[in-house]
Amino acid sequence: MTRLDEREGRPGSADELGLPEDAPVYRAVGLSRDEVAELLTGRHVRRAEDGVWEVPIVLKSLRDAVETMVPVPLSHVNLNADLVGYVEEEAAEIPKKDPIRLVVLLPEAERAAADDGVLRALMRAYFRERLRRFRAEERQALRSVGAATFWGFVFMLGCQVVRWLANFPEHPTITSTISEGMLVLGWVALWNPYDRLLFAWWPALKKRRLVERLAGATLELRVLPFRLPD
Asked: Which residue ranges does UniProt annotate as crossing the membrane (predicted)?
């Protein structure tokens, strides 16, 4: 993963990017050379002057932030999946103890008409509901792996009893085959619970901690410094 301190040194100006002075694509999208450079490099996570890491979100309209505008309780209104994925991916690179600010960049007309309070309430409600679901899934997964580990041990104990009973001195090959087979079968029964208990829960824990940080992040609406192509 590219660290943020590495990303600070990336090219920024049109000259550094090697953009041509004139190109048909500029006219096609309705942007100048400098605006194309800003679009390519200026919308990345960066530390603001107050020390807060800002995750920029460029939108043509606030309607693009949600997947439905049906007037139902906020916790049931889903944010755009691409937007959520982008925010979580960018926020994952920010140092764990540093604060985060989500900066929504809108065209001037949209920013003037935007209701900051509604979007803040929507974002808080969405990430808190997402966090609640993660915590519920963690508790359910913990109960599930606990039960699987218990019954795995019970099955392993049964296999050990079979190994002890299956002792045929006159047929050592049969005895060895049954003994080794029961041992392998017992460990196979414990493999999945052990894997889930020791390793599989780490990604889910990291995801939940990331959502916790985003649930506590501040949100700010700003005017987009350049026009977006139609």
From this structure: 141-164
DSSP 8-class letter at 229: P
Q: Is residue 217 part of a domain?
A: no
Q: Would you give per-residue pLDDT tens digits along the chain (230 residues)?
A: 444 444 444 445 667 777 778 877 777 666 777 767 766 665 567 788 888 888 888 777 777 776 655 444 544 556 777 778 888 888 888 888 888 888 888 777 777 766 777 777 777 778 888 888 888 888 888 888 888 888 888 888 898 888 888 878 788 888 888 888 888 888 888 888 888 777 777 777 888 888 888 888 888 888 876 666 55
Number of domains making up the chain? 2
- Residue 173 is assigned to a structural domain of this protein: yes
Domain assignment present for 223:
no
If DSSP states are collapsed to H, E and C, what string results for 171-226? CHHHHHHHHHHHHHHHHHHHHHHHHHHHHHHHHHHHHHHHHHHHHCCEEEEEECCC
